[in-house]
Amino acid sequence: MSDRASQLISDILRRIHEVIVEHDVTYEEYQTAKQWFVDVGEAGEWPLFGDVYIEHAVEEQAFGDRVGSQGTILGPFHVPDAPLLEASLELPHRPGEPGERTCVSGRVTDDEGKPLANANLDIWQADAEGRYSGFMPGPPEGNLRGQVRTDAEGRYEFITVTPGPYTIPLDGPTGQMTAAAGWSPWRPAHIHLIVSANGYEPLVTQLFIDSSDHLDNDVASAVKPELIVHPEPTDDGFAFTYDFALAPARAPAIA
Ligand code: MBD
Ligand code: FE
Fold first, then answer.
1. Which atom of ligand 1 is nearest to the CA of 192?
2. Is the model's pLDDT at 255 over the cut of 70?
3. Distance in angstroms between the alpha carbons of the first and the last residue of the chain
4. Atom 9 of ligand 1, nearest CA residue
5. Please, what's the b/e burial string for 23-32 (b: 16 or more CB within 10 A of its CB; e: otherwise)?
6. Residue in 74, 79, 166, 167 to alter for ligand 1 test, most ligand atoms within 8 A of Cβ
7. How distant is the alpha carbon of residue 100 from its chain centre?
8. Atom of ligand 1 nearest to the CA of 222
9. Which of these, 179, 184, 144, 146, lies nearest to 166 by C-alpha position?
10. What is the DSSP letter of 109?
11. Does the CB atom of residue 223 touch ligand 1 within 6 A?
12. From CA 63, how far away is CA 207, in angstroms rounded?
C-alpha cells in the first residue's frame, strides 16, 4: 500500500473514531449507519452522495487558486459524447419542451482576453421540472445535452430552455439523510458546462439562474457568486451572456 493511501485511510478512520468518542455514539446508531451505507449502495446513490456532499471541497482544494473563470462541481449527471449542435444551435429537446426559451452566448478567451477559436462547450442541464435525461423518468435520452464550438473570434451561442431547480430524490437514502439532518434537499436552477481548448485547463462549471430559489442554500454547496447569471427578456424568450476565461493547462497537453 502506498504511503499516501495509508495516511488518508488512517486519517479518515481516526476522524470517524473521534466523532464516536465525542458524541458517545451508541451501538444502535452504529447499526443504523451501517444499514444506511448498504442502502446507499443498493440505491446506486454513491455518485449522488459523493458529488452532493464531498465534491465541492475537492473542487475548492484543486482549483481554488485557478486564474480566469471559476469552476464548480461536475456532479453525477454528465454523459460524454453529446452531439455537436446543428445550425439552429438548439440543445436537443422535445416538441413543446416546457420552460422559457433562453439564448446563451459569449466568448471563450485565455486569462488575458485572447479569443480562443474552436474551443468546445459541452452543455447539459435539467428540464424545467428539474429532471436530467438518462437518469430520471420523463425526458428522453439525450434531452438538453449538446456541444458547441467557438468561432474564429472565440464566440459561442446556444439555445435552450431555462432549467428548473433540482431536488435530490427524497425517498432515497441520500434524501433521507438530508431530511434527518434537517437540511434542504434542493439545488438552485443551473446549466452545466465543460469548456475546453487545446493547451488549456478544462473548466468544469455551472451557471446559476439568478431568479431561482435555493441560490443561498444549495444542498451541494456549489454556488459561487461569479457563476450567477441574469437572463433578460427578449422578443422570443430570455437571453444572457457569459464569457469564459481558461487557465493554462496544468500538465503539458498530450498531443
Ligand atoms: C445535480 O444536478 C448536480 O449538478 C450535482 C452536482 C449533484 C446532484 C445533482
Ligand atoms: Fe446539476
1. 4
2. no
3. 32
4. 75
5. eeeeeeeeee
6. 166
7. 21
8. 6
9. 184
10. E
11. no
12. 17
Cell numbers linked to 124: 447539459
> How far is it, in rounded angstroms, from Cα 6 to Cα 10?
6
| pLDDT higher than threshold 70 for residue 110 | yes
Q: How confident is the model at residue 253 (pLDDT cuts 50, 70, 90)?
A: low
- Contact 59 CB / ligand 1 (< 6 Å): no
What is the identity of the amino acid at 15? R
Cβ–Cβ under 8 Å, residues 83 and 144 = no
Ligand nearest to the CA of 124: 2
Cβ of residue 75 lying under 6 Å from some atom of ligand 1? yes
Q: Which of 248, 253, 251, 252 is nearest to 65 (CA)?
A: 248
Residue 166 Cα: closest atom of ligand 1 = 2
Entry pTM: 0.96
Going by pLDDT thresholds of 50, 70 and 90, the confidence category of residue 66 is very high
Cell 471559476, residue?
Answer: 70
